[in-house]
Amino acid sequence: VQLVESGGGLVQPGGSLRLSCVASGFTIKNYPMNWYRQAPGKERELVATITRSGGGTNFADSVKDRFTTSRDNAKNTVYLQMNSLKPEDTAVYYCYIHLSGLNYWGQGTQVTVSA
Predict the structure, then answer these.
(1) Which backbone phi and psi does 75 adopt, to 5 degrees?
(2) How far apart are CA 10 and CA 110, in angstroms?
């Protein structure tokens, strides 16, 4: 099982980024998928969850109405669209799945929001 995130970078406040998480070793269509983030000195927090079909999503209050998540099961890929970014969104963003009793994390992608 492998999760590989990409799409992070440096962006100005108010800007947008789209993160991707490509999965291998399993088929994502059978599982809900999750995005977490961890800011310096803070605990890792759940940002977004998307159901197996993609028909349902949940977001942390801090990103609601600014972030969306989607999935392309044919590409085994999950996306996190981040709009109206704020400095407090600066963090390493991780893709996560709980699979067969184990926790799997990607390596993370750094998002820095700064003028």
Answers:
(1) -100, 0
(2) 8
Cα–Cα distance between 72 and 88 in angstroms, integer?
A: 28
- Per DSSP, the three-state class of 90 is coil
Over residues 31-38, the mean pLDDT reads: 96
pLDDT in tens, 7-24: 999 999 999 999 999 999
Contact 96, 36 (CB under 8 A): yes
Query: Rounded to whole angstroms, how far apart are CA atoms 20 and 76?
Result: 10
For strands 57-59 and 109-113, give the pairing.
Answer: unpaired
**Residue 102 to residue 13: CA distance in whole angstroms:** 36
Placement of tokens 């890792």 in the chain = 44
